[in-house]
Amino acid sequence: MKQKLIKLNISMDLPEKTAHFLTNAASDGYCYGGHAAQVKLGGGAIYIRNYGVYTDDCIFWLNRASGGSLFHAWRIGYQSKRSSIEEELSRIVEHENSIGFSLISLIPIDAFMKDEAGPGTIAYYALFERRAESKSPLMLDRWTLRQERIITEENVPCPVIGCDFVAPRMTADGLNLNSSKDKLSSYLCPKHRIYISPSTFEYEEPTTSLLWPEDKETALKLSKAGKRTWSRMGRERDEDSLVWNVFRFLEREGLLNKIFEDNIGKKDTLFPWGQIEKVVYWSVDTEKMAEWEDLQKARSLIGENCSHGSEPDIIAVFKNVVVLVEAKLDSPSVTSAPSKIPDYYSDKKGIFKNNIEHVASSDGIGYELMRFFLLGEALREQFGKTTLVLVSITQDGLDNDLVRRVSDNVHLGSRIFYYHLTWNQLYSLIEKIDNGNSVDKRILLRYLRGKTLGYSETGKLRTLLP
Predict the structure, then answer these.
(1) Hey, where are the domains in the chain?
(2) CB 395 within 8 A of CB 464
(3) pTM, to two decimals
(4) pLDDT tens for residues 351-409?
(5) Origin, by domain of life (predicted)?
(6) What are the phi and psi torsion angles at 14 (to 5°)?
C-alpha cells in the first residue's frame, strides 16, 4: 500500500491553508495516517526571541482510503484571558463536529529559550478530518471546494475536492434548484448531500447553512413566522442565512451597540444612541414569533398593506435611534422601479430632494431604498426617536457610488443618516471587537473568510471576501 508524505509548516502558515493543502493531497483517495513534528534550533521572529528551540515543520503521512478526506485546521493558543485553552478547544471541537469534521490530531507548537525558563507550549495545531464514508452534515467553504470546475453541456461534477460524482446538467427551462426535490435525486451527491447546478449548490438539509446549532430551531420558527423570502435556506448564495449567522452572533453577544455606535456612527457625534431595545429580523418579532405589530403600523402609515409591505433585513431600535439594515450577498442595492410607482408612496415628510419617481429609479437610489427611507422615518416618528440610520451592506466593488446617490437624493444630516459598508469592512469591524467570547468570534470570522458565492462563467470559485 502506497502512502503519501506531506511536509507543512504548522507554526507560520495559516491553518486553513495547510488544511487545504492536505485536502488536495488526499483528493485521489487518501486519509490521515499520522504525523511527526520537527523542532528547530535558532532564532524565530514569530516568538520574538533571538535564540531558542521551537516547533517549525510537521511531516504528515496519508494512507490509502476508499475516498479522499477533507481537512480543517485551527491554531489554538492562549489568546483570551477569559477562557482556558481547554475551553477554547472544546468549543472549536463542538463547532467542527456540528459541520461534519472530527478532531484527529492535536500537535503542540513549542518554543523554548536557551538557558532560561519558558515559554514552553504556546499553542496547538488542531487538525480535523471528514472521511469519505462519513454521513454527517457537511458545511462547505473555500478550502473544501474546487478552485476551478469544468462543466460540459451534459454533466456537472460535484464541486467538493476529490469527489468523483457527476450530475446531469440543470437548465433554466428544465429541472433546476427550484424544482421539487423528489425530482432531483440524480442531482444529489450521495457523499456530500448537496444538489448540484452548473454554478452553485444547495444542501439537502437546509439548516446546514446555519452557523450556530443552538439557533437553528429559532431560525426555522422565524422562517415560518413571516420571512417571505427565506425559501432559499440551504443554498450557497442564500444571503438571509449569511445575515442571520452574522447578526445573530452580534445580537447574542451584545455587540450590536459596538458595531453601530462605536463604528458606524463614530463620525456623527451629534446624537447619542443609547441602549438597544429591540432587534427584528425581517418582519418577525422573535419574542412572539409573529410579524412585528409596530412594523405593521409603520407600513400602514406609508400606505402599504400592514402585513405585506417593505421588509428590511434588520431593524434595531435603540433608545434614541432606529436602524434599518439591508444586506446583499452579490447583488447591487439599487433596484429597478415598477413602470408605475403606487400612488400611496409620497414624500409628506420632506425626506427626498427629488420627486419619488426619480428617487426610486435606477438613476436615483432605487425602489427598495426609497421605500426603506419612508418606512424608517415612519418608525422613527412612531417610537419618538431622534434619529434614523439606514445601512446598506454589499460585496466589495459593488455600489461604489451609493453614498453619492443617496446624498444627491436624500436630505441627510439632521435626523436621517446613511452608511454603506462592504462585507470586508464589516469583517474588519468584528475582528477589532474585544469581547469575552473570542472563540465564537473566531468561528464567525473563519466562516466569513470561507464563504463562497458559486462559480463564475469561466468556472472559477467566487468568494465573499478577497
Answers:
(1) 3-130, 243-433
(2) yes
(3) 0.94
(4) 999 999 999 999 999 999 999 999 999 999 999 999 999 999 999 988 899 999 999 99
(5) Bacteria
(6) -65, 135
Q: Does domain 243-433 have CATH number 3.40.91?
A: yes
Determine the angle formed by the axes of helices 438-450 and 85-98, rounding to 10 degrees. Answer: 40
Do residues 176 and 197 touch, judged by C-beta distance below 8 A?
yes
